[in-house]
């Protein structure tokens, strides 16, 4: 009986932790720009990948972005996602 009670407490704790993380993630995503600018002002280097100015990025940052994009393309290719080009 004692073991069942401890297991129930553990499951309850995990569920609460997952819920708190989910709420925190949603709150962060809603205020992502404000949070990132606050962190940048306080010494944390948080870059927003959505608004990247490729011309101001270093060569290392550009290579990392290229590798990430290539990984995403390869993953989508393996899953059968059709890529449609808008170029003629």
Please give a handful of descriptors for the protein shown.
88 residues, mainly alpha, 3 helices, 0% strand
Structure write-up:
The model has no long low-confidence stretch (mean pLDDT 83). This protein has helices spanning 2-30, 32-41, 59-78. The chain has three helices and no strands. Helices cover 67% and strands 0% of the residues.
Helices and strands in order:
Blueprint (H helix, E strand, L loop, with lengths): L1 H29 L1 H10 L17 H20 L10
**Termini separation (Å)?**
70 Å
Number of strands: 0
Proportion of residues in β-strands: under 5%
How many H/I helices?
A: 3
Helix content: 55-70%
**By helix and strand content, what is the structural category?**
mainly alpha
Instruction: Average the pLDDT over all residues and give the rounded result.
Output: 83
The largest sheet is: none
Topology pattern, helix = H, strand = E: HHH
> Which of globular, elongated, flat, extended, rod-shaped describes the shape?
flat
**Low-confidence segments:** none
Rounded to an integer, what's the Rg over CA atoms? 21 Å
Compose a concise summary of this entry.
The protein has 88 residues and is mostly helical.
